Amino acid sequence: LCFPQKLWKMLESNQFQSIWWSEGGKCVAIHEELFKEEVLGRVGPLRVFATQSMKSFCRQLNLYGFTKIQRDFQRSASLPEFLAEEAAVSTHSKILYYYNPSFNREHPHLLERCKRRAGLRRRAPDALEVEERHPSRSPDG
To answer: Which pTM value belongs to this model?
Structure first.
């Protein structure tokens, strides 16, 4: 499975306490410290993602079009979301919220739109571009 499919499967299972649907299924909420332990700390055949680093996991979210959003402290309407958020706040833990318009619990068909964006690479301009702008500097000229 690709990254968004694995993430979806995690959110839909009752196996993980550190990650859940928030905002009525429009956002992914991650209890950061518990997630590091419960998900990223897995090894061997139980491993979910290729990384054990929260920074790398967040980079994957960004590459697939998720954006981190800030939450005001208005509580969720659904009981499971409310309880998860209350537990996290009571332990002074950090909850991260990520949003992607194509990652919505009510519209699973949109999941196929979650494509990995090409990474931006910094590189020197092609030699051909330099030649075109400065023909007198080309080896033949």
So the answer is: 0.70
Q: 3-state SS string over the chain? A: CCHHHHHHHHHHCCCCCCEEEECCCCEEEEEHHHHHHHHHCCCHHHCCCCCCCHHHHHHHHHHCCCEEECCCCCCCCCHHHHHHHHHHHHCCCCEEEEECCCCCCCCHHHHHHCCCCCCCCCCCCCHHHHHHHCHHHCCCC
Q: What is the CATH number of domain 16-73+80-113?
A: 1.10.10.10
- pLDDT values of the chain reduced to their tens digit, one per residue, 141 residues: 799 999 999 999 989 999 999 988 999 999 999 999 999 999 888 899 999 999 999 999 999 999 999 865 555 667 777 777 776 665 556 889 999 999 999 998 998 888 888 765 555 455 444 444 555 554 555
Domain ranges in the chain are 16-73+80-113
